[in-house]
Design a protein that fits this description.
Layout: H1 12-37, H2 40-66, H3 81-109, H4 116-139, H5 144-173, H6 178-205, H7 215-223, E1 229-239, E2 245-253, H8 259-274, E3 278-285
Parallel strand pairs: 2-3
Antiparallel strand pairs: 1-2
């Protein structure tokens, strides 16, 4: 997972709230339009958009929570809340996929007449809305939390593409099974993306070594950071959140008399080369043999 702070990008909190407002507004318009037109398809799609709005609401709340200050009980504050937000949205996405799969299978056994004109209109409008929301989220700060919310938007975006494609095929050929077939294909793509994010999220929960850090390379860089350093052990590095990375290590030195200089060199090196902004180093004095003796 990248540890960049994404300077120049919009904060995840503002982007998520804007995306939530747009998605919720469209869901309300669809629901009112469906009620006035007595269209079950419109009302159903409004319900789907509401699930996206719920996911974005969770993401926006988590983005707000992450900015709260640390306390005596939570010394790192709520940084890990973004991991919980991502985990919630991935599991929520699995539930949505399961519901779509059940519905698609039922349609194979009990084919239903699809009003291709209405489906294509809804799909086209939904596609435009979701493309814009996805663009907003992709331009904002990239965290596990925003990526979890983006999963739902991309799922709805792909659903709109499938709806347009299904409507077009039904219009040309009248072949109804294309609707559940495309739905199942979209579900496969969503499950693949969701599982990737789930594995990455669990890796952070397990405090695994960040994917862009080579532990052997880090170990060698620490040893070469200052002439007084002779070795290193108890080396650990992990992501606190998407924007904060920590490490701890025992540093073997010939003498602790120049520890301030050693510490400064180490802190600068791990920050510049490995994006580690929360290092903790414990000096351990070791007997050094004079090579000239």
């Amino acid at each position: 997972m990248s540890n960049s702070h994404n300077h120049g990008k919009a904060s995840s909190q503002k982007v998520l709230f804007l995306a939530l407002f747009i998605t919720l507004a469209y869901a309300v318009v669809e629901a009112i339009g469906g009620w006035l037109a007595n269209s079950l398809a419109l009302i159903g799609d409004a319900g789907h958009m509401l699930t996206d709005a719920a996911a974005l609401a969770v993401g926006a709340f988590v983005a707000w929570l992450v900015n709260k200050k640390s306390s005596t009980k939570l010394s790192f504050g709520f940084q890990r809340a973004e991991v919980l937000g991502a985990l919630f949205n991935v599991l929520f996405m699995y539930a949505v996929v399961a519901a779509i799969v059940v519905s698609a299978i039922q349609r194979f056994y009990e084919p239903q007449e699809v009003q291709f004109g209405t489906v294509m209109l809804i799909g086209t409008i939904g596609l435009v809305i979701n493309v814009f929301v996805a663009w907003l989220l992709s331009r904002g700060e990239q965290t596990l939390n925003t990526r979890g919310a983006l999963l739902h938007v991309m799922g709805d975006l792909l659903g709109s593409v499938a709806a347009i494609g299904a409507g077009f095929v039904i219009w040309l050929t009248g072949w109804m099974p294309i609707d559940p077939l495309l739905s199942l294909l979209i579900c496969v793509l969503i499950v693949i993306s969701s599982t990737r994010l789930l594995l990455e999220t669990l890796h952070v929960v397990m405090e695994g070594v960040p994917s862009d850090v080579n532990l052997d390379e880090l170990r060698n860089s620490v040893i070469n950071a200052h002439p007084d350093i002779t070795g290193i052990h108890h080396l650990h590095v992990w992501d606190i959140s998407s924007s904060k990375r920590a490490m701890s290590a025992h540093i073997e030195v010939c003498s602790t008399s120049d520890w301030d200089s050693v510490l400064g060199s180490l802190a600068a090196m791990v920050h510049d080369d490995f994006n580690i902004d929360h290092p903790t180093f414990q000096p351990e004095q070791k007997c050094c043999v004079d090579e000239d003796s």
